[in-house]
Amino acid sequence: MMKSKPLIAHQIPLLGKHLIEASAGTGKTFNITRLYLRLLLEQELTVQQILVMTFTKDATEELRGRIDNFIRYALNHWHQLSQSDEFFIAINDKVPIKKVQLLLKQALLFLDEAAIYTIHGFCKSVLTQHAFTTGVAFNANMDNQSQGIQLNAVEDWYRQLASDKSDQFLMVAEFWSSPQALISHFSRAIHQSSPLQLVPESDLIKNFTELVTHSISTLNAHKEQLTNHLILNKPVAEQHQREAELDSLMQWLADVELDHQTLTKPMPDAFIDGRRYGRSTQKLLIKEIFTPVNEVKKQAKLLLKKIAKAKALAVVRQGIYQIRAAIEKQKLTTNILTFDDLISRLYQQLVTPQGKHLAQLLFDQFPVALVDEFQDTDPQQFSIIRSIYYHQRQAGLFMIGDPKQAIYGFRGGDVFAYLSARQDCDHCWLMDTNWRSSDSMITGYNRLFCGDNENQLSTKTFGYGIEYYPVKASDQAINKQLIDKKYSSLQFVHFALQDQKNTVNQEFRKEMATWCANEIVRLFNAPEKNTIVASDIALLVRDGREALDVKTALTLAGLPSVFLSNKSNLLQSEQTTQLLQLLKGILYSESERFFSAAIACQLLPYPAEKFYQLKNDQHA
User: Fold this and answer.
1) Whose CB among 236, 374, 411, 460 lies 3.0–4.6 Å from 401's, allowing a Cys bridge?
2) Cα-atom radius of gyration of the chain, to the nearest Å?
């Protein structure tokens, strides 16, 4: 695996395939703007030729603004910067001052036309611009969602399945009783175009039969020990009972080995009951002998249902292929493209033999690309990038991302697509200095992932070849002070449970939320708090229920808070009801009923006494 080298913006080559690994707070956008400036000045590319891609509209606008500001800053302060800043000194040695001014002024003049896109925006631009090549209609309608088309296709398939005389509909309905249930389970499979893999019913039966055979051979191999410790040491009457139990178990296993359908008969498991040998001196030996047959007992309860589900899945797989075709046909008929279609259509065009022509056209148009948040790319998105740039000798491709984030699959990202890209790169760079956090926080962060060897590379933390590089603190971070010097920057809080169980009752969340609220109060009252305010504090929770518990605890502690991920319907809120009441009063002011309701609404600071006077003063 290629070793990552520290990134120095004015030294990195501008050609080749580069992977830049950037942890949080290490100045990713700072370096993107510097690479962009070098491409403008050293390569003399226009803003229309430098492709910049990221994953949200907000991020594209932020990048556009940061690039704009940096170009203006460089243009207005070039004389000072070219003498004091090593980045600008390096460029100044290569590019004459007059050319610098000309190129930067041209860049600012055409910055509104800069090729800064979301990945979906880029695909849409390509499909529209090269409509004849890609076969996409000029007047295609963009639809963010296609749930209606999807639901219709699934409902049609259910109706078709129900009208057949076979029992396939009952097989499917046993597990997914409605079209909506099927969509909730298989939405991603429906939207993909790749083949669907299943575990065959025959494999389930084969694996189970092999386990039964193994359990029979294990019991037979240790029959003498079982007889001595579980039969002969018992009274005579009980010995006959135990022998009969063992014979019944062996016969059941033999029947199941020949035909799994006999699983409909319950397993005679009295002989392997753990209470029979719990106090035996040979308990561990007996338990080991019974391990295979106990696994048979466990799987026997589920096998028939697994087989039924495997049969249903085989029907569903064919149904999904049919549903995909119906959705595509409907979208072609209505001339609709979704955001996912933008990716898949361009991908399909580029991977065909004719796609080389389109890839060359795109490379000629955008000879350099900077892909931000690269860890969020999925295999299709990465294939688009690879088709355009990986076979070009004079390409400049800069992929900036954080593999630690790729693990979680945000926005559909695929960590293995990221690792594949890294393996094929010419250069790997590392941004290893955090410019946001305090020195002690960074130390805690490194210790968390590296243990005692906090200054050494860790290859075992995440696995799959994803390395953790220790992060350095900047000079500014070293000078930052803790809010409360009595505590470490990174802490783990353990709650002592009264019942000493491994599981936590959901009701205990309220106690944890109360602790959080009390801790915030303590921080506000700490003598070392400096200038800490409420907006300095963020609480991350798992879901909306935890958020409600925390918000309730904060309210009881007299701490106002804002739930930033609240997905409740805004139009059903109390504030909306009050606003609607006020707007109706304005719109229908001649109506005494609407006018009075508006005056009395909680959005207006109108005292009750004044409102009473108004109601009794006709002139007023």
Assistant:
1) 374
2) 34
Q: What whole-number distance in Å separates Cα of residue 410 and Cα of residue 129?
A: 30
Q: CA 221, CA 215: separation in Å to the nearest integer?
A: 10
Output phi, psi for 609, to 5 deg: -65, -40
Residue 142: phi and psi, rounded to 5, are -85, 125
294 burial class (0-12, 13-18, 19+ CB within 10 angstroms)?
middle
Matching residue, tokens 């295609």:
140
Question: Which of 326-330, 525-529, 540-544 has the lowest average pLDDT?
Answer: 525-529
Q: What is the pLDDT of residues 360-389, one digit of tens each?
A: 999 999 999 999 988 888 888 889 999 999
**Within a 13 Å sphere around the CA of 357, how many CA atoms are in the beta-carbon half?**
7
- Report how far residue 292's alpha carbon sits from residue 220's, in angstroms, rounded to the nearest whole number: 12
Q: Please, are residues 434 and 477 in contact by the beta-carbon 8 Å criterion?
A: yes
The residue length of the chain stands at 620
pLDDT in tens, 192-205: 778 899 988 999 99
Task: With beta carbons less than 8 A apart as the criterion, state whether 28 and 431 touch.
Answer: yes
Q: Tell me if residue 568 falls in helix, strand or coil.
A: coil
Lowest pLDDT segment from 104-113, 186-195, 198-207, 491-500? 491-500
Cα 436 to Cα 489: distance, rounded to the nearest angstrom = 14
pTM of the model: 0.69
Which secondary structure element, helix H or strand E, spans residue 459, and what is its range?
A: none
Residue 52 has pLDDT above 60, yes or no: yes
